[in-house]
Amino acid sequence: MGRTPLDAPARQQEVFAAVLGVLAEVGYARFNMDLVAGRARASKASLYQRWPSKARLITDALKANLPQLPQPDEGTFAEDVRQILLAWGEPMPFDTAGIFLGLLEGSRQDADLACLREEHIDRAYTEHLRVAVDRAKARGELPERLDADILITALISTFVLRSGEPGVIDGIVDGLLRPLTSAFRTK
């Protein structure tokens, strides 16, 4: 009996799980098709035939495994962000921090990965934060002139770099966002 083709959904998910596992473990620089092929029990040639570069393979694996994130409306910016970060922190079958760090590393080295990441992955994570920032500006919690991109990058970076630390979400929300929004409201 022959192998299941790589485009079969269950088989593709096996390959994608191998991709994300390898990326989280070894990073982008050491990521290669040999490691994925061995873990996914697939031939390197069949991987290259379907995905001509590691950047495209990683992007497709990430797209197939994007979490369904809620768009909370808790009435305050801090609580909206808390709910978004809690959703990001939900147990995932993959090492999210390792994957994010591998993506950041790879994006500095590979322009194709950087473009694919921005186009397909970043939007999925930043969209909910952008809505929360826009709502906070409309409610007067944040100044109109605040650079949403910088704030969103700071929130994501802090979450990723400190994920796994106890109380990281409370630290971001209660130690950073609440003082920020209350300082703005008192002006």
Automatic annotation (TrEMBL):
Q: Which residues bind DNA?
A: 32-51
Highest taxon listed in the record's lineage:
Bacteria
Question: What InterPro entries does the record point to?
Answer: Homeodomain-like_sf, HTH-type_TetR-like_transc_reg, HTH_TetR, Tet_transcr_reg_TetR-rel_C_sf, TetR_C
Report TM segments: none
Looking up PROSITE patterns in the UniProt record yields: HTH_TETR_2 (PS50977)
Any one GO molecular function term: transcription cis-regulatory region binding
Q: Which UniProt keywords apply?
A: DNA-binding, Transcription, Transcription regulation
The HTH tetR-type domain sits at 9-69
Q: What is the name of the protein in this document?
A: DNA-binding transcriptional regulator, AcrR family
Q: What is the protein's species of origin?
A: Lentzea waywayandensis
Q: Upper taxonomic classification of the species?
A: Bacteria, Bacillati, Actinomycetota, Actinomycetes, Pseudonocardiales
